[in-house]
Amino acid sequence: MQDIQFSFERVWSIDVPGKHLLEGPVLSPDGTRVYFTDCFQGTIYEFDPSQPTVAPTEIYSYAPYCCNGLQFLPNGKLAACLWKGTIWPKGMLHELDLQHKPKPKTEPRISHSTTGKQFRHPNDLAVDDEGGVYFTDLRGGHVYYYACGDTQAKSCLELDKPNGIELQMVSGKAQSLYVADSGTSTVLHYEIVSPGVIGKQIANQHFKIKHAVDGLALSSDGLLFVAEKGAVYALDAQLDPIGRAPLMKDDPPIPSNICFIDEKRFVVTSYRSFLCPNKAELFLGTIED
């Protein structure tokens, strides 16, 4: 299986009272910064990957909401997946204007489906070439899509617990969609017929560990990197594993999501098990030649 090698360096950790889960890394449009969240605290951080020894800066808090996936929109604003509640959570997507002074300004974007159903746990999102947004509702069991200007989102796919999501772009167009279903520990690949319309399944890969798969990221050469409970995996075009590496050799944390910085380097967010909820760590990964 080990056709590709990659390694990790821990660049930052948080270890303070409270429940912590680092999530949602996204590269800024100019490629100079990575933004990520401390999900359960509702905070967004800014990190400069060119200065990995400099601690990330907290730039915004959505508390008491939890803040999960992030993605930049064509208008330059940062879309954020928010949710609140344990037994019956309610969620929405917000847009954060990082350029607004003296501090970033947020506004709600969308909270209901075309059937009037409120989102439960918006988890991760991907933006297509037309500015439309695909996003997963983890505890709602749907993948949704909304176009620019829409006030409601339509369901385009039903899964058990849809989690990570990624678009494959070909010649600037969204050609296919990858989704991680944590409920079945499966990564799935679908055709996109038109914006918001999902076609046939192309491939899938099942992982043996229960509730294993989380965030997804495509490398520049088309490999799909998967955050899995025990390690980060690299999958080829057929979704066959061709690489695997834990974040650390001893007592490794659990990878949650992935974001590529360039052709060789990527950021991985992580968390610890329920036995150590007050600690979470940020890693830089490197694909080795």
From TrEMBL:
Key words, A-Z: Hydrolase
Gene3D superfamilies registered for this protein in UniProt: TolB, C-terminal domain (2.120.10.30)
Pfam families per the UniProt record, alphabetical: SGL (PF08450)
Region of interest called Disordered, as start-end residue ranges on this chain: 102-122
Protein's UniProt keywords contain Nucleotidyltransferase: no
Single GO term (MF): hydrolase activity
Domain of life: Bacteria
Keyword Hydrolase part of the UniProt annotation: yes
Residue stretches spanning the membrane: none
Domain SMP-30/Gluconolactonase/LRE-like region: 23-271
Name of the molecule in the record: SMP-30/Gluconolaconase/LRE-like region
Organism of this sequence: Gimesia fumaroli
